[in-house]
């Protein structure tokens, strides 16, 4: 069904978003790299999943030092992906199929080849001299403070022309913009307007809490060993995690800029934003600051569910923490994306367990309150690819190999047809990353022929979610249990659904609390747990859903935590 203009401003609330990594999705010109025409070609497949929107990783002009996250022109398409006309054709076809288009915006930094930076580094007096974070050296010539790059090494690079250091949170070829300069904000918003005028439906804001740094350039304190390590932004092999990043990111001034960003979006109908927040143990508080009040971001996601834990305790803790801190904001949950190991490999203990885990994970995700984001290939149950060092393209992985193997393992090309070279991704002799045999064996065409495949389970599960309004934006309340069971209700209008998931490797029984009346058991796709005289019997890695009524023994909705956010952020 084609999209209708206007009238659905809250389409993003409870939406299912499918992330496309363009260079790995489909190649149409035989250069071994995916392109925009390839996305257009595969849009009917994406539509068949039942998603509401696609999120496109960067396709802008770039030297590709960080696979497009180093932008040299925000208002043009890199030739390896196609042209602006190709983008327009892709977006028109997506809209015809009822799919909205969300694009990445990488605005905390640019490429060092961006004209803005080329001019800025030319002198200390040019019109764009203050557009980046420049600082004088200490008297001994060293960097102005101890800030680190998340990609390894210091967060400062010396420039011999200006005889100053410039800040970079990532590669040295990704200098950070100075958002304290209002002209920078204006210029960035002009590039955003370019895409809004072109008709995009929203933006995923990369590293949204990295826009501002401390004006005084104070050094970060060490990370205390007894601090909560949940949600750390770097692997143990990276010294970045040895600091508490109080001053190089997540500054209170960011809130006012996000208000400017939202004010621009609100001039257009039915647009949305989703921010990526990487802020260690403070991530949820940051999400609360950025999504509260309805005048900043529409929603955010953190890395809380992107780690190794797949337990009832962990998932419940993440959701409850969100409910406590992010009182009137909205979350986008995900188990995988282009920056982390695929969740089937994180959660499954054996190869045989992978499809079981893949099905259970999407069933849990689809039942949570919030929007959800899927990463291309997870609907096939793809595991992380094991790549040889010589095949790596990710500078992050190359830098920290072998302790950390980087992000290439989750970025290998989409397997479409098992019997073709490179699993149908490209007709080129060589693909930009190899397609491992174990991934080719899980190709789309292979799974289309099997009713019990992970692919068909995804389709049925997303259809189940859409058929129950309570799962889109209904209230969520956890049910008390002493076992490692994830039990909660979702409620909207006259519908209340009970979900019970057994995430352990042993059978379990869930006794319905007194006062809860079990109604019609629902055929949640893929699961057949039964109710026996008030006790739900679940197999290992199993799930159950039924309509219920009553409230006795249900845990109260968690109460908001007052005073959690700095006053300047409110």
Describe this structure in words.
- The protein is of the alpha/beta class.
- The protein has 2 domains: 16-108 and 184-221 and 247-466, Glycosidases (TIM Barrel), CATH 3.20.20.80; 476-549, Immunoglobulin-like, CATH 2.60.40.
- It is built from 14 helices and 21 strands.
- The strands form 5 sheets. An 8-stranded parallel beta sheet has the order 11-10-9-5-2-1-13-12, with helices on one face.
- Strand 1, helix 1 (36-49) and strand 2 (53-56) form a beta-alpha-beta unit.
- Helix 4 runs parallel beside helix 5 and helix 9 (354-367) runs parallel beside helix 13 (454-466).
- The model is unreliable at 552-570 (pLDDT under 50).
Brief summary of the model shown:
The chain is α/β, with parallel strands linked by helices and 570 residues long.
